[in-house]
Each structure stands twice: as C-alpha cells, then as structure tokens.
Model the fold of this input.
Amino acid sequence: MYCKTLLTFLVTLALSTAAWAQTKISGTMQCDKPDPVYTLPVGDRPGHAFSISKAKCTWPKATEIAGTQATASEITSFAEIRGNRGSLRGSNVMTMASGDKVFTSAQGSATVKEGTIQSAEGTWSYTGGTGKLKGIKGKGTYKAKSAPDGTRTIEVEGEYQLPK
Done:
C-alpha cells in the first residue's frame, strides 16, 4: 500500500511540475541618469546616507515574456549608503510591446564611490502583471554597472511561469 501511495504522489508531483514549467529569460536594460534623486545624510558618521531615486530605462537586448518583448521600464529605488558599500531595494514597472505591464521587486548590495553607486547586484521577483501577464510568478538575478555620466546598464536573468 505504501509503494502505491508513494508512486501516486510522485506521478502527481511530476505532472504538476510539468504544468508549471519555468521559462528562462534574460535581457539588458539601459537606464538614464536617475531623476529625481534625493539623498539625505544620516549624521551619525561620515558617508552614511539614505537615497531614493527614479530612472527610466529601455531594453536594447529585450527580455521576452509570453511572446512579447519588454520595451521600457521605470525603476524606483531606495539605497542605504555606508561608506563604500550600500544596500538597495527597488521596484520596476516594465512595459511590454503588447501594452501589458509586469511588476518586480528587487534587493541587493552595491559598491559606492564618493557617494555614488558604481555597481550593484542582487535578486528580483515578480509581484504582478496586467493583461496576459496577470498572475505571473518567477524570480532571477541582476547585475548593474554605472557609467561616469550616471547612466546604468543592468543585466537580468531569471525565469517565469504564467497560470494556465
């Protein structure tokens, strides 16, 4: 009886996993210099500050989700800077060529030089979507590098699944 129950469980698990198969994605965002940017020194020690910013991004190497490509993103982020290190949290509203939107939340760490983020890396996850992308789930990683003019290039990869 135990073997039959175990076999039934394993078959059910295999079928449910196949029904929710992950689709891999990758892409590159090119972000304008953030505007606005607000930075407030904490005052407890040199180099400790909080910063919030918003940046508009395009997708020169677009990620594709459910047959439609990303065309633009708007990233709002919050950073705590402590000398030459920082921690980040952010949200991204990604617009697809179809007009649907995808929402993500991200967190990570950064290297900082003279109060400016030079590079960052971390993880992200989907928090929702509209239209065909409603109910999207998934996660991934990102790596960002800043240019001297304040623009950023962000490489993303991950996976997603859509409800049936």
Helices lie at 2-19. Strands lie at 23-31, 37-41, 48-61, 64-65, 68-82, 85-96, 101-113, 116-129, 137-146, 152-161. The chain has a mean pLDDT of 89. The longest strand covers residues 68-82.
